[in-house]
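Task 17 of the worksheet. Students: predict the tertiary structure of the chain below and write it out as structure tokens. Keep your answer in the requested format; marks are given for formatting as well as content.
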Amino acid sequence: MKILVIAGLAESLLKFRGPLLRAMVERGHQVHVAAPGLDATSAVGIGVAALGCVPHAIPLSRNGLNPLRDLQLLAALLVLMLRLRPAQVLAYTIKPVIYGMLAARLARVPRRTALVTGLGYAFQGQQGRAPSLVQRIAMGLYRLALAGRSTVVFQNPDDRALMVAMGMVEASRTRLVNGSGVPLQEFAVAPFPPLGPGDQAVHFLLIARLIQDKGVREYAAAARLVRQQHPQAVFHIVGWIDTNPTAITQAELDGWVAEGLIEFHGFLDDVRPVLAQCHVYVLPSYREGTPRSVLEAMACGRAIVTTDAPGCRETVVEALNGFLVPVQDAEALAAACRRFIEAPRLIAAMGASSRRLAEEKFDVRAVNRAMFGHMQLDLAAGGSA
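Model answer:
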């Protein structure tokens, strides 16, 4: 089968979909991938070609609602599909889902799968509130794009329930997977940095795009509160300032570093070394699909502090492998972090539980087998998921 996979960020094809793409190729499918800035000479283009996929660049701007640019994207995707004539299109993240599914309908692609990896800031706080103009536009586009025979795969039950309740998709065409999964063999359990008796130098880590909806400001505020009582505690951030409308400013970040609240590592291609340097992983996000960074931390045997929010809550069994805190509550976040400083035995115990949960629920091979089933791809053609 000829398959076209459409992404909003080229790097995600390798980081989040690499095992899935490899499994498709191993089963004998001809796989094409499309993303902004993706061509045969780019680093990601070379990487996906090494997997056996054919790269294509598309004119996609992840942020903003410029109708001319979005029409240009729709036209480019339609032209690409008419040229390739794929039997299956898989699209993930909001703009690839909307415009990829619209183009696939126009091109009469027989099988269309939308993977909703999170609803993003456009739907933040939507439950129980009247939709804003941006939300009404997004809802209308989703309804139009997902009409017909498309299958819609969600990474958490909250997103599925919200989109069904808002009439954006019929419940009968929805499916559920446990996030993107994590390659357990690549993210092995790592020893903890040593802690001596009475040592309060517990290291906390957040890996995220530096935007408001990842809870970065709450993380910095919690660091300030914790360090007032436990000045040896260390709070790390790995990430970058994004083009998202809710991005934090460079001045904010510089201020946190100057104040001594944060140790900033910038963007890292490989986060395993910094995961090995921390005791507890923290993600105070407002909403996720299922956060891959948390799954990686769990696979490495780290306790988790995250929010009781869609997607995030799927990764924590309260008081077993971590703690859930309310969204946008820096004081609750600080209190959860302090528990590991005041009872350091929780670090190893909860870390071991995290690894067990990762093995039982989030193994990428099991997630890919589920994706293959939802996409109705041939599972008998060989290869390993």
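Marker's comment: Confidence is low (pLDDT under 50) at residues 379-385. The chain has two domains: 2-181+364-375, 203-361.
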